[in-house]
Specification:
The chain has 332 residues and is of the alpha/beta class. Helices cover 38% and strands 11% of the residues. It has a single domain, classed as Arginase, Chain A (3-Layer(aba) Sandwich), CATH 3.40.800.20. The chain has an 8-stranded parallel sheet with strand order 2-1-3-8-7-4-5-6, with helices on both faces. Helix 8 packs parallel to helix 9. The relative contact order is 0.16.
Length: 332
């Protein structure tokens, strides 16, 4: 058996019909992990849906009420880019419950993986880009509410900027140190994190990292603590170099008690919604790098999956399964 737990439910399936988002990928990942021998049935834990009180730690009461009563406006539903249904809402509540459980298991075991989640575009008062509820933010705030953490770090390796995360956890700087622009066209490390200062004891402090394709969704990219704006066609070596540099810089300035890793499969060169040039092997090295750095700093890792839209869904499944394999190799 694995030395850590995987959080999964067949009900992670999103009822969205024909869509570029491969709703069946969660079930395919679960099946592949078992058939390949990477995992055993006992490695999996079934989550329960998040409570409304958990969701309200991040999202506004008005938005939650609209979701639960089916009273979103046409514009609000259009902005989500997935068709609304009560079954969809249940799936997102379950994904949030899965990330809460994964965070709790990571704090216990050193690492845990939610075979789902990573819906990093969701905003406090609306959904965006296939994301209805920001499950990672909910998990962080639940862990803080329970007194288990005060400091968290998010490492977002989806090809798309983590705009929801940046809005929910905006960088907090010393007075007199304004944020630089987040619209840089080159792949630069913004230096705002060098002015990051510790929050008062007991207050939640979240350090955010986003590695994303500069010329991709969303158009408006609010500032994270560190933003890596990657040019089109970035390859494995270039990507891994920038990831290593950003992690080194972050850990020089911040000591998290939990690292939340969003392991997007969409930096892959064959992704339909991405424009980077990473290989399947390079993406596994990415996963290994994040987990190795976290282990070296003795920081628990909660993994969520985020996006993946390869032309062949089997490639997306392979990339996501490799994340579990990387965790097995690093933490065994």
């Amino acid at each position: 058996m694995l030395p850590f737990k995987l959080i999964y439910s067949d009900d992670y399936y999103l009822p969205i019909g024909a869509h570029v988002f491969p709703a069946e990928k969660y079930r395919l990942i679960h099946k592949r992990l078992l058939e390949s021998g990477i995992t055993e049935p006992g490695d999996f834990i079934t989550p329960k849906p998040a409570h409304d009180e958990d969701i309200l730690l991040v999202h506004t009461r008005e938005y939650v009420q609209k979701l639960k009563t089916g009273t979103l406006s046409a514009q609000e539903e259009l902005q989500m880019e997935v068709p609304y249904s009560l079954e969809l809402v249940k799936a997102f509540w379950l994904a949030a419950g899965g990330s809460i459980l994964a965070a709790d298991m990571a704090l216990r075991d050193g690492v845990a993986c939610n075979i789902g989640g990573g819906f990093h575009h969701a905003m406090p008062d609306h959904g965006e880009g296939f994301c209805v509820i920001h499950d990672v933010a909910v998990a962080i705030k639940r862990m803080h509410q329970e007194g288990k953490i005060d400091r968290a770090m998010t490492v977002d390796c989806d090809v798309h900027n983590g705009n929801g995360t940046a809005v929910i956890f905006p960088p907090k700087l010393r007075p007199g140190h304004p944020l630089p622009s987040a619209s840089a066209s080159s792949r630069d490390i913004h230096t705002r994190h060098e002015d990051h200062f510790a929050h008062p004891v007991g207050e939640l402090d979240v350090f955010t990292i986003s590695l994303h394709q500069a010329h991709n969704y969303p158009v408006v990219k609010p500032p994270s603590s560190i933003d890596i704006n990657l040019p089109d066609g970035t390859n494995d070596d270039e990507y891994l170099g920038w990831l290593d540099q950003s992690l080194s810089s972050a850990f020089r300035h911040f000591a998290p008690e939990l690292l939340c890793y969003m392991a997007g499969a969409d930096p892959y060169k064959e992704d339909q919604l991405g424009g980077l040039a990473m290989t399947i092997e390079g993406l596994k090295k990415r996963d290994e790098l994040v987990m190795r750095v976290a282990k070296e700093h003795k920081v628990p890792v909660m993994v969520t999956y985020a996006g993946g839209y390869a032309r062949h869904v089997e490639d997306t499944v392979t990339i996501h399964c490799n994340t579990v394999l990387a965790a097995k190799e690093i933490f065994s």
